[in-house]
Amino acid sequence: MELPQLLDLVRRGDELAWEAFVRRFQSRVFGLAYHYTAQAEDARDLAQEVFIRIYQNLALVPGEAGCLPWIIRITRNACIDHLRRRKARPPLWDLPADELFDLRSTDRNPEEAHLEAVRKTMVHRALQELTDLNREIILLKEIQGLGLEEISAILEVPVGTVKSRSHRARLELAQKLVAVGMGA
């Protein structure tokens, strides 16, 4: 179903349409929240909070072209608010137990799975070391696949700034990865 039709049904109170809408965007919302928080549980909570905000503001959801950037802006703002709250009240301990004991089976052999997990961890750590603007640009452009104009609107900076910062962000990320040993 096309997004404009789906939005129309959602606005009229169709519960199945709302479920389809959430399914369409939930992985992007969760993924972006996870990149900001680095905690699966926090990302799930934030994704739920984002969809509650969207539901409460259905009349404000833009049409097809502006819908995804609008959802990403809401997600980004929710993540920034969450990080500010977490910084003001740090957790008692910071141990992601569900990530330490992941017992799911994979089709790959254990060595390949381990190497991929190590690479992902290194990339995630390198992302966390970037400046805030560079990290956001990498997340929005490379991971979420947004265009320069959409990123410009979300971050409220000129398109030229996004272009130049995108290049610098990729270089900074590459330098961080080389420093932690992935460049070899």
From TrEMBL:
Pfam family, one: Sigma70_r4_2
GO BP, sorted A to Z: DNA-templated transcription initiation
InterPro entries, per the entry: RNA_pol_sigma-70-like, RNA_pol_sigma-70_dom, RNA_pol_sigma70_r2, RNA_pol_sigma70_r4_t2, RNA_pol_sigma_r2, RNA_pol_sigma_r3/r4-like, WH-like_DNA-bd_sf
Coiled coil, from the record: none
Family assignment from sequence similarity: Belongs to the sigma-70 factor family. ECF subfamily.
Keywords annotated in UniProt: DNA-binding, Sigma factor, Transcription, Transcription regulation
Source species: Candidatus Geothrix odensensis
The protein, known as: Sigma-70 family RNA polymerase sigma factor
Occurrences of domain RNA polymerase sigma-70 region (ranges): 21-88
GO molecular function, one term: DNA binding
RNA polymerase sigma factor 70 region 4 type domain: residues covered: 122-173
